Structure formats: C-alpha cells, structure tokens
Amino acid sequence: MARKRKERKGGLRIDPSVREWLKDAAENPAALTAKQRRDRKRAKATYDLPRDIQEAVRRVAREEDTSASQVVEMLLAFALNAYIRGEESLRGAFWDGKTPARTPRFSWNVEPPDEWLEAIVRFLSAEKGE
C-alpha cells in the first residue's frame, strides 16, 4: 500500500502561474554571487575510488584547510597535464597497468602501479602513528 506524502508545512509557496512566468524570465547576470557564477561552470561527477585514496584526499584537504572536492580538482588537473605533456612515468603507468576488460563497453582496465598505492598507505599510516 502506497504511503501518502504529507504536505509540506511552511516554506515559500509560489503560485503556479508565477512559477511558469519565472521559467521564461531573463536573469540578471550582474546579480549572481561569485559562488553562483563558479557553480554554473561546474558539473558534478562520481567516480569509484578505493577507500585509501578517498581517505588520503580527505587528509590532504584537512592539511591544506580546503575541501576534498578542491583537492581532487587540483590533483586531477595536475595528472591530466602530466598526461597531456606525455610524461613517461604517467604514460608508462597506463601501459603497465592495462589488462583486457571483460565488458564490450571498454577495451582495457587500468590500475595504478602498486608502488603508488603503497605510498598512499604509508602516507595514511604516518598520520595514525603506525
């Protein structure tokens, strides 16, 4: 049996005709905050990452007093620039980490070299005093 949703109590209720009019209304770009302008240029993305990498990102964010999202943006931009420049350590890691994919969607699976993952584990255990 489907549960009936309770009507929201409070908050701003806008007349449906006003809501429709607002869809077509011109927006004043000068009235946007700096955050709104930045957010319009951004898009969310979701990636599957090992827990150690996620924890390392959170630790770097704490150390740099910034958000995990900004740390990921900085590190991805750095790595992508290294890839674009053809840096051998990164390009070589792609070739060494390739294994055939078992799906028709992709040709290859790639994984970071063990020494990179071991360095992340050492970084995390240094914080814990191990």
Please provide a written account of the structure.
The protein is mainly alpha-helical. The protein has a domain at 51-128. It has helices at 16-24, 34-40, 51-64, 68-85, 88-96, 114-128, and strands spanning 98-100, 108-110. A two-stranded antiparallel sheet has the order 1-2. Strand 1 and strand 2 form a beta hairpin. Helix 3 (51-64) crosses helix 4 and helix 3 (51-64) packs across helix 6.
Give helix and strand order, one letter per element, not per position: HHHHHEEH
What ranges have pLDDT less than 50 throughout 5 or more consecutive residues? none
Radius of gyration: 23 Å
Terminal residue distance: 54 Å
Strand content: under 5%
Q: How many E strands?
A: 2
Q: Report the mean per-residue pLDDT as an integer.
A: 86
Largest sheet: 2 strands, antiparallel
| Spatial shape | elongated
Strand order of the largest sheet: 1-2
Q: Number of helical segments?
A: 6
Structural class: mainly alpha
- Fraction of residues in helix: 55-70%
Give descriptors for this structure:
mainly alpha, two-stranded antiparallel ribbon, about 5% strand, 6 helices, about 130 residues
Summarize the structure.
With 130 residues, the chain is mainly alpha-helical.
Secondary structure: elements and pairs:
Layout: H1 16-24, H2 34-40, H3 51-64, H4 68-85, H5 88-96, E1 98-100, E2 108-110, H6 114-128
Helix pairs in contact: 3-4, 3-6
